[in-house]
What does this fold into?
Amino acid sequence: MARITFLGAAGCVTGSKYLVEAGGRRLLLDCGLFQGNKQLRLLNWERLPVDPSTIDWVVLTHAHIDHTGYLPRLVRDGFRGPIFANSATRELCGILLPDSARLQEEDAENAARKGYSKHSPPLPLYTEAEVAPVLARITEFPRNAWQVVSPEFSIRAHDAGHILGATSIELKITENGKPATVLFSGDIGRYDQPILNDPAVPPPADYLLCETTYGDRDHPSGSPHDALAEIIQRVSRRGGAIIIPAFAVGRTQALLYVLRELEDWQRIPQLHVYVDSPMAISATELYRRHHEEHDLEFTRQEPNGDPLETRQMHFLRTPDESKSINRVTTPCIIVSASGMATGGRVLHHLARRLPDSRNAVVLAGFQAEGTRGRALLEGAKTLRIHGEDVPVKAAVIELNQFSAHADRGELLRWLAGMPAPPRQMFLVHGEPAAREAFRTRVETQLGWRNVTLPKLGDSFELPPA
Ligand SMILES: [Zn+2]
It folds into this structure.
């Protein structure tokens, strides 16, 4: 009988990996890296309970590292099959996976310098050279049409509206002539957001895996325009700079789109906007180019100029260009990765700008436990950056209207679109409290039964209807 095994994102928001077995074949849905605190990151070093050489296929919902970042390890350890992804996801993997490898290599170098590691010399989880064989295995499959993977498995993608290329995956399993369908939500995005199509109405499914990143919270109501315009006016009047740690993919483009609109409507002054992340620059290019992902509003705006470009925008590619904005003393907006301030160029901007109370840090996305972003949200008086304790005098503003993730209400809206309740629902990709709270909502609001909270390593049979 077909079965599913939870190899990640079962009790946490990262490491998405779901192994589906049927007819002696194995398909892995997403292949994510565990990210966040040390305890989670150490999981990346543990052997998978299944030999990668016995996995036949990988299917990706989207390119985020917590869904793809374990691929170089999987290939190094023997996986030799195709990796199915749509066109935008394939290209984004070409940006995100090399970056992930560089971070792994940097971590290993830092560990070597400081003398902490269980390996001697400290090893990276994988290197940039190990990414090329992964990219070579990615096979594009069509949007919104069935792709036959094997006699046992067929897949079909549905827009998830989360980042460029993001989808939910419908997996049809056929064993002994009997079908069963599993729907993997992937990461669900928001409705009526800029640039991308809304999450599609989900198809019927016997089994459903649903993410619960914001399963216990609703984002603040109101448009991101009002909130952002208010912050920019207030901070620019007092002569401050606005630092926005932003994920290079998704958040940065949504911000640029809204900034451009606010300028068009003359609701904000035309400030210098510095996009300080080579990865964000490349991703913005992909966002422009993949027209098949654009919603109607974006398409309508294009004749009036690039919707992703503000009037005084600067793309900073080199480290010297990045450092040069340390000398900027007039009000400005700095958009820089990483989005949770765990690393990257945003750190030196924070070190420079946090001690000045005229400035503001805008946290425009999910901040995981154990990250500097979360510490700022929780009111830290100092922040440890590059070995120094930096005083936090700047205002810290949470702007969850920019989240790329559906909130509790939007997840319920997406689920309510299913024509019938699934026979069994698995809640994944959420911190324990969020997942627990969301189960209660699903049971009381939708009246669904048989809601399971799998633990890492749990395995369940998937009997046909
Ligand atoms: Zn994601």
Q: What stands out?
A: The chain is about 30% helix and 20% strand.
